Amino acid sequence: MSLVRRSWLAWLLAVVVPGCASQHASVLGGSVQRRPIVAVEIRAAHPRAAVLVVGCIHGNEPGGIAIARALRHAGPISGIDLWVVDDLNPDGVAAGTRQNAHGVDLNRNFPWRWRRAGRPGDQQYPGAGPLSEPEARLAHALILRVRPRLTVWFHQPLGVTDRSGGDVALERRFAAVSGLPLRRLPRYRGSAATWENHRLPATTAFVVELPAGPPSRVQLRRYVRAVRTVAGLV
To answer: d(Cα 151, Cα 161) in Å, to the nearest integer?
Structure first.
C-alpha cells in the first residue's frame, strides 16, 4: 500500500467515532500534493435538508478545523443530513499559507464573476481559470451533489459573522448564539459562498470570520452550538 493510501486510511479510521454508526466518511479526492480531502456525513433519520460545514479554506486560517471536528463528534442534528469537511486546503495548512500548493487563493477560484489577476503566490491570486484547482473542484462537485440548504464557511481573523447574501435571519441567529456580530464584508470575485448563493438561490451560504488563534473550549462549545442551532432552523 502506498504512503498516500495509508495516510487516507489512517484519516478515515480517525474520523469514525466509536458507537456512532450514523457517521460515514468518504474521501472526495486529493489536494495538489495528494493529501486527502474528506467529507464526513452525519445523517439523522429522515432528514429534511442537507447542511455543509467547511472548517478551513485558507491554510493560514485553521481555527475552524477544531470546530468542524467538534461538530462531527457532537452527533446528528434532528432532521438534518450534516456534511462536514474539516479542511479543504490541507497543503496550505501544512505550509502555513493562505493559498494552496499552486499559490492559488481557493476562495477566489469559484465560478462566480471570476477574473484573471496577479500571479501565483499573490494573496488573492484566483488561479489560471475558475475551478483550476483540485480542492475547489472537489468542493464544487460536493455542493452540487448534496445541494446543502445551508453552508457555513469558516475563516479568520475578523471575529464577525458575514452577511453573505443568503437568508439574513439564519446569519443573524448564528451571530446571536456565537457572539460574533453580524457585519457585511466586501464581496470578492470567485468566492465560494457568493458562488453558492447565486448558483443555488433557494439556499444560504455564509462566512464566519473567527477571531485570531485557536478557539478556547468555551468558544468551541459556543460555535458548535451556533452551527447546530441554525442547522435546526433550515
So the answer is: 13
